[in-house]
Amino acid sequence: MDAIDLKRDFAASGLDAELAQLDRELVGLAPVKQRIREIAALLLVDRARQKLGLSTEPPTLHMSFTGNPGTGKTTVAMRMAGILHKLGYVRRGHLVSVTRDDLVGQYIGHTAPKTKDVLKKAMGGVLFIDEAYYLYRPENERDYGQEAIEILLQVMENQRDDLVVILAGYADRMDTFFSSNPGFRSRIAHHIDFPDYADGELVEIADTILARMGYRLSGPAQIALGDYVARRRTQPHFANARSIRNALDRARLRQAVRLFDRHEGTVSADQLSTIEAEDIRASRVFAAADTATPA
C-alpha cells in the first residue's frame, strides 16, 4: 500500500456517525465541535501514517475541559470516548465519570485502593474527572488527595495507550490546579474551553428537551421562556442547560396541576402535550422582589 484515501477511511471509520450524534445532542458550541473534529482528523491521519509504515509517535490524548456547569462537557467526553474507540485508540470506548469522592479516601491506606479501582474500571476507555481541582487541597496538610494525584499521574504517563483522562471544571480553578500540579499540565495535550450558551440557544435546548419528552411550548410560552432565560442567568447558581432542564421539570409540574385543577372533564392530547406561558411565568424568577433561589 502506497496511498490511502482519507475520505474513504473516514467514512469506513464510523466517525461521521459520532460527530453527527454530537451535533444532535448539543446546540451551539461551534468552537468545541470544531476542536473535536480537528482532534479526530489528527487521529485519522496518525492512523493512516501507521498503515503506510511511516514513523509515528502516539499522540497524547489526555484533555482538559473548562467551562461553567451545564455546558455539555460530560456529553462531549462521551462522544470523544466513541471517537477514540472507532479509531482504535482505546479498546472499549466507555466513559467512567468520577469526582474527588470516588478517588480520595478518608483515612491512611484508603486512597490508593479507591483510585486504583476506578482506574481499573476505566482502562480501555476514558476517565472523566469532574471538578478535578478538588483533588488538591493545600490548606489541609492531612488531605489524601495528593496520593490520588500521584497515582493518576503515573498511570497517565505509563498507560496512556490504554486510558485517556479528561479533567474538567471552572477555568480559573483549573488554572490554579495546573499551576500547583505541573505534572498534570505537562500531560494534557488538548485544552478545550466550553462557552456559556446564548439566550436563543438555551430556548432551542428547551425545545429539544421537550420534544424528546413529547411536549412543546405554545407561542406565548416560547416568549415567556425567553424572558425566563434572560432573568435567570443574572441570578445565582445558573447552570446553563442544566438550569433550563430543571425549569422545564417545574413547568411540567405546574402544567399537571393546572390541568388537574381546571379540567373536570376530558383533556386532549394537545392539552397534555403543551406547556403554556402561565406554566413558565409562575416561576419565582419573575418575582422581581424575591431574591431567593428560584423555583
Largest sheet: 5 strands, parallel
Which ranges are low-confidence, i.e. pLDDT below 50, for 5 or more consecutive residues? none
Beta-strand content bin: 5-15%
Total helical elements = 14
Structural class: alpha/beta
* N- to C-terminal distance: 63 Å
What is Rg?
23 Å
Sum up the overall morphology in one term. globular
For the largest sheet, list the strands in their spatial order.
2-3-4-1-5
SSE pattern, N- to C-terminal? HHHEHEHHEHEHHEHEHHHEH
User: How many E strands?
Assistant: 7
Helicity range: 40-55%
Outline of this structure?
Helix content is 55%, strand content 10%. It contains 14 helices and 7 strands.
